[in-house]
Design a protein that fits this description.
The complex is a heterodimer of chains A (209) and B (477).
Chain A: H1 2-5, H2 20-32, H3 38-58, H4 64-78, H5 88-107, H6 120-124, H7 130-147, H8 152-162, H9 168-175, H10 179-208
Chain B: H1 2-12, H2 20-35, H3 44-60, E1 70-74, E2 78-83, E3 88-100, E4 107-121, E5 128-132, E6 137-150, E7 153-166, E8 171-175, E9 178-181, E10 184-189, H4 192-209, E11 279-282, H5 321-333, H6 337-350, H7 357-370, H8 374-385, H9 393-407, H10 412-422, H11 429-442, H12 446-459, H13 464-472
Helix pairs in contact in B: 2-5, 5-6, 6-7, 7-8, 7-9, 8-9, 9-10, 10-11, 11-12, 12-13
Classes of the chains: A mainly alpha (209), B alpha+beta (477).
Amino acid sequence: MIAALATLVAFHGGARRPDDDARDEQLLARHRDGDPEAFGRIYRAHAAAVYRRLTRVLGPVPEREDLTQDVFLALYRALPQFRGEAKLTTLVHRIALNKAFEHLRRQSRRRTLSADDVDLDDVLGPTTSPEERVRARESLATVLACLARIKPKKRIALLLRVVDGLSFDEIGDLVDATPEAVAKRVQHGQRELDALMARAEDELCRRRS
Amino acid sequence: MSQRLDVLRAAMTLDDQLDDIKRAQIWSQLEPQLAAPVPAPRRWPLALAAVAVAAAAAVLGLRPGPRSTRTLTAPADTTLATSLGPHARAELVGPASLELLAPPGDATSVRLRSGTLVAEFTGGPGRSLRIETRDAVVEIVGTLFAVDVRDGATCVSVAHGKVRVTTRTTVLAVAGGESWCSTRPEVGPIEPATHDRLDRFAAVLTARAGSPAAPPPTPAAPPPTPAAPPPTPAAPPPMPAAAPAPALAALPSNDLPATAEAPSIAPATPIVPATPIVAVTPTAPPAPITAPVPATPTAQPAPVTPAAPAAPAVVVAPATPETLYEAAEAALARRDGAGADRIFARLLAEFPQSALVDQALFERARIAYERHAWSDAQRDLDQLAAIARTPLAEPGAYLSCRIAIEARDGAAERCLTDYRKAYPKSPHDLDVLGVLIDLAYQGGDCAHARGRIDELERSYPRSALARAWAARCPEGR
């Protein structure tokens, strides 16, 4: 059931268009020229992608909105030093992943996200049966609990690879690591996750029986 | 393993869309921080010194004064719409300056230094609103009223209810339809201009409440009696009559900021403040009211301009498509879909050639969609579809199909099929295909959906959805 949940996404897709980079450059130029509205437009253009990126690394945690805010505050402060060495999108997503990394490190010392934090009712719809809801919640709980036990760097690399389908080069670009290092993180992360999930599923089966 | 990864993908893409309301909310919190200076690096010795000073101050009994003030300033030709605590909605008509003397709550206390404050206060047990001016204290228990401080004089006008005014020499009550000024001892009728302002404020509140049962219209001012003394030369000049129905605030207001001083707004550049605490409206320039004011006090009172119809929500003048759009976003941030919708409607009406028309149409459609007003949403989407080369054509078409699904009008399948033909590389294609399969399955069984399921497996073989449908409808069923 949970596999089908991902398909119930809303209608703001967010695929970038070819002219988005040109638009970003224009907005950056306007921002440098002191146009007070330019940053607001940069925000509007990238907020959804940042939020999506954070979700895909952190899961549906309630802190995503605060973190999105932090990302754009950091971006605003970084822009005076930004000389266009990379695309604005790359800069934004690097900052987002840094914030996600910091968040995960902090979280590892506190409680982790549980399936109870996620409002499945919003996503499943009224017609979903109680059994399906229970199964969805269990699957979600297993995934989130297992992910929480993987080190942040490995987790980020793994999720960028598995969920977003990025190449090792692209991930390296975002997390400032070589493709080889990224590949290693993904490989280790995947192995750990697999082992953890297998163990969690066994546990679940034992409980059910 | 692959199944586990599917579960992982599904879990991490759950609820990953940032809707416009959330986006606007985040921006409304972020924007004020952008203007703040970058925090300096931590300096522990200074911090420790500050702690030591604070501790010493505590020991010595040094405490801040009992009242902390926050000032709201409205420049000339500007009206700030705000609230004074949870029970009072107000407009500050510039040039004006208002201090909040304590955090707003059931008992709210303000000082009006200059200008006109128009407010409606909803009374109740334990509630009070106290307005201090230089020469009077006005206490309100529940009413629609205006306080005007000008040229060193205070005038209090009450539309309905009653207020108590305390001066250095007397205490008096001002009732509905009455006005009192510190420059003359008697209570008299309300100035027509003030009456007009109160009427329009009541209309705004009614529009905001969205209910015709909101405060009753202000009663007409009683005719001045022949015995009423003519205004003395020292009396404050009457407030300029406002033009009928300028764009007055129809947005719900929030409390004044809890910690920061409200920004003072430069007269030359009325702007929407960075925080959505108040809405700014240009005050209409002085203009004659609809009927001439009688020249003598014995004449019949001038018919007062009737309450303006619900005006579109507040924006800055001169309004531009951009300022209107920003105001609408601010309204969305406050979850005020109706207010945002009115502003978008105004944008469309006043700037039909603007580059923001497509966005306004799409946003209106979304707002209507969220309140299940399918035909309203579809009307906006039809207009959006008529705009050539808008980047919102694709999301608009998708929303249109979603409406068809929600409205169960039977056109959903055709809509989604057409959508896939028009936008074969759409990022929503997988979702749309999923819905089409679901519709086919609901209309029969696996056999009905087989063609679509096969297409799903061909086009998106690694997708979680393909696996889910393969499990539900294996080959041969």
